[in-house]
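Quick one: structure for this chain?
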Amino acid sequence: MCVRRHYAEGNFVILEEAPLGSLLIDPLDIALLAAGVFRVFMAGRSLLQSGARAAITVKLSQSTVTFLRGRLKMGLSARNLKMTETAAKHMHNPGRYVPLQLQEKAIRYGRRMPDPQKKIGYFRYETEMYRLVENKVNKTYTYKKYMLEVIVREKNWTISHFLYK
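Got it. Here's what it folds into:
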């Protein structure tokens, strides 16, 4: 809409023009957005289909699953750790007591080796640990370095033996 203003003598003073109304969303933007969503949808669909095909065709052997379980430590936490009766009795001895959190950290981050007695499914984990020891002569406390050894059955995270030396 155009508005012209004149003085009474007829001289042109000002020309005002109302701006065109701008749309909140341009139809071209909607078309581009729809094309982008369609491309993402198709890419996701093809990814899911290829993943489903791969899941169907891949079969892991039991030894591979056991190996991955040992490496990734799935299901391992201090709450999930179990103990054999012998290991539980050793936990009641104050001289041998090792907190479950330390044993869990030894299993999670320690060196993994085969069981010395060659039991199937059992593995030995070793890590360094420090323990506060009292010097009875001087009445002082110092940290002493030990090697923590934990033997565990990885199938259900049962500790059968632990020792620090």
